[in-house]
Amino acid sequence: MGRRRCRLRHLDRDPGRRPAARLGRRALRGGPRPARQPRGRPGGAHRVLPDAHGGHRRAVPRRARGALLALPSRQRGAPRAHRIIVYKSAKYSVEAPLAIGGALANGSLAQLTALRDFGLPLGVAFQLRDDMLGVFGDPSVTGKPSGDDLREGKRTVLIGLARQKMPPTAVRVLDELLGDSSLDDAQVRMLQNTVRDSGAADQVERIIAHNVRVAREALENAPLSASARAELSELADRVTRREA
Question: Is residue 174 part of a domain?
């Protein structure tokens, strides 16, 4: 019980995770009720409750593995970029809060599995959209300077794909400028055009769309109410089509 309280305090300190946790809890209201558990044995909700770092106590769901396999795997820095997407965003910000909310609503194992199968690919799509906004976002909407991730030198999947597709001379220029906090607007626009012209941005958009499809498929036969499935589907639209 002490560990569970620690997890919930950890969740409460991160305002970004609370909406997903509330949605996970709300999604089970009015849905099929979990089977009554024998006394002295933890329910399915507790068996899949994530740890404080968003980790699993079971294997990654097959649907979610399909989503992750859509990410590029053969460019420099890919393993690190994948870990950031899975653990920083997909698990920590989306999947784990949904599961915690469902656990607090006494969800069954099948219900929590559905929430996690939905949350992991959606979290991947969410982080990839964030990466796109970090390079191409409109500063009047995002509230951050255009190309902020370029100045910070973030080695995202977008940048890794661009490096994979660009000729060696362009890669050298990118590597030289990436992470330079003194980049002026003209240099940022040049890097934005280089990344866009490489085709990396289009590929990331396709990966986002694929992960959203995988997330929606997880809802099709989920033991959740129709209203819960509709609300989760709306969440998928909201987090992947955002402009800030």
Answer: no
Q: Quote the DSSP letter at residue 57.
A: S
The CATH number of residue 77's host domain is: 1.10.600.10
**How many angstroms separate the CA atoms of 235 and 66, rounded?**
20
- 158-209 pLDDT, tens digit each: 999 999 999 999 999 999 999 999 999 999 999 999 999 999 999 999 999 9
Q: CA neighbours within 13 Å on the CB side: how many for 89?
A: 20
130: nearest Cα among 91, 157, 112, 111: 157
d(CA 216, CA 211): 9
CA distance 224 to 18: 20
Residues in the chain with pLDDT < 50? 1-16, 32-70, 72-77
Structural domain for 14, as ranges: 2-28+44-140+207-240
End-to-end Cα, the chain, rounded Å? 38
Residue 113 corresponds to which tokens in the numbers above? 């599995």
